[in-house]
Amino acid sequence: MAGLSASIVSWTHSLRVFPQAFPSELSARAALALAAALMLLGPATFAAARGLPAARLGAVFGLVLACVGYSSSRWPHLARAIELSGGTFIGPFLAAVSTSAVALTAVCVAAVLLFDDARPHLRSVLLAVVSAWLLPTVATEAVLLRWWGFGPRTLCEVAAVPGNAQAESQNVVWLYASRGRSLQKESVRMAAENVDLSERSLVKLENFLLRAGYRHVFALEALAAVRQGWRQWWEADRALDALTLAVPGRVHPDYRRALDLIKAGPLNAARYDRLESLAAEAARSPAGFEDVAQTQYIFEGFSAAYARFGDEAKARKWLYRIDNLWPVSEKKIEVTPVEDFREGRVRGTVLVDGRASAAVRVGLFLLWTSSGAAGSTTSRLLSASTYTDDDGRFVFTELGPGRYCLALMARLELLRGRILGSPGEFELSYDRPSVLLPPVRVERELADVPEAFVPGGLREPALPSFPERPLRWPRR
User: Fold this and answer.
1) Could you give the CA distance from residue 401 to residue 414 in angstroms, rounded to a whole number?
2) Is residue 176, in this structure, part of any structural domain at all?
């Protein structure tokens, strides 16, 4: 009977390549078939054990287990809803013990029915067993329905946004040399695990979070999608708004990614105020600092951000906090030099087929080098992005010192073809506060062929300016 009870509940556990928010549900026909099988197997089992008169007890057993099975079949979904609502530990625990609880209940009910000493209390015991399952199930579901929006099975359904299957792709061209190529092209799909991340969908997800007050079964998934989406679209300010969002008891800032945006972006008074607000939230709540290694990264991020703004006292303060962490073994502590330079300026031009295009987004990225036990790594940190003006020009201001690179983002057909004038990596410093980049030209009339690989990063040979002679095939 324990094995049978486990089988009744185990259908709700599903394995998927693309995970859904909730387990798969049983169809009504399959549920009726399982209930009918239970009602038949119960009398048959009792009749085989105690003779034909015991079949009546088996019918009672099947009826009680049918009520218990209905309640238990709700708990995989309820446990998942509790986990999505913030019960990170209690939700998975309830999902894990539900099957064992049903098996234990089946053993207890069978014992009460078979032992003659428990016969006088049979009705009260069975009523207590059914109530112990039914009442918590109904109460939990009512609370989740009333306060946490439980009911819809996907974020797409509740926020009225398309799924990830309908997401579009954007073409991204990195305008610097790497692995022997003068530039790199990649296709970025604007989608999360389950939802589309178009700009229209991101606005709908933000409106859904505001309506729900960040208190919903799908609130955390929606917020993660918003944070990912604005970063994919290179919207630094909107991404920073999402990453620094804090709702007591529900949402804490994504400190690492927010600090990357702050230290790589414009070093103006508004960004410094955002840094101060983020530091105040870190002092107010310990949420987000549960892991020692991640906490070290966050402390170093605060120190680096304050150093970029020239605030040496606060930069040292955050480095000193690392001494209180134990153990710190992820990587060696990094110290960013204090900078006073905040007047960096980058100008350039992007032309598509010789004309300006308002559909090409230009992104500026800071090449940030980090060193650790495994060696040094270079990351591209989003600094800012903009669209070109009527003349194809763009400008980025209030930048700090460092190595930078450019990237272009547009629809696949807009950046198809040859791209000339890649500026590569360039540096802003006290000696070179302003950089005027060569014009970047996109020539779409040429076929989009893969760039030849040049071993060792050598420069490509110049293309001939005259047409080649056609080959003369011998006649047979």
Assistant:
1) 32
2) no
74: containing domain: 2-147
CB contact burial 78-87 (16+ within 10 A = b; e otherwise): bbbbbbbbbe
* DSSP 8-state secondary structure symbol assigned to residue 116: G
Token readout for 49 is 């054990």
Q: Are 325 and 297 in contact (CB under 8 A)?
A: no
Spatial contact of 454 and 181, defined as CB atoms under 8 Å apart: yes
Q: Which amino acid is at 309?
A: F
- Considering the domain architecture, whether residues 293 and 352 belong to the same structural domain is answered as no
Find the largest Cα–Cα distance for the chain: 108
- The residue count for the chain: 476
Same domain, 197 and 112: no
Residue 183, judged by CB atoms within 10 A of its CB (0-12, 13-18, 19+), counts as buried
Domain for residue 25, yes or no?
yes
Cα dihedral 152→157→160→163 (10° resolution): 150
Tally of structural domains, the chain: 3
Task: Give pTM, 2 decimals.
Answer: 0.81
Task: Please answer whether residues 206 and 230 qualify as being in contact, where contact means their C-beta atoms are separated by less than 8 angstroms.
Answer: no
**Within 10 A of 266 (CB to CB), how many other CB atoms are there?**
20
- From residue 3, alpha-carbon distances to 64, 100, 332, 408 in Å are 17, 10, 53, 59
Q: Is residue 465 part of a domain?
A: no
Same domain for 112 and 231?
Answer: no
Between strands 344-352 and 375-387, the pairing is unpaired
CATH number of the structural domain spanning residue 392? 2.60.40.10
Assess whether 159 and 289 both reside in one domain: yes
Residues 354 and 308 in one domain: no
pLDDT tens string, the chain, 476 residues long: the values are 666 656 655 554 444 434 456 777 777 788 788 888 888 888 888 888 888 888 888 888 888 988 888 898 889 899 999 988 888 889 989 988 988 898 899 888 888 888 888 778 888 889 999 999 999 999 999 999 999 999 888 999 999 999 998 999 999 999 988 777 888 999 999 999 889 999 999 999 999 999 999 999 999 999 999 999 999 999 999 999 999 999 998 899 999 999 999 999 999 999 999 999 999 999 999 999 988 888 999 999 999 999 999 999 999 999 888 877 766 555 667 778 888 899 999 999 999 988 888 889 999 999 998 775 545 678 899 999 999 998 999 999 999 999 999 999 999 888 888 899 999 999 999 999 999 999 999 998 645 455 544 444 444 444 444 444 444 444 44
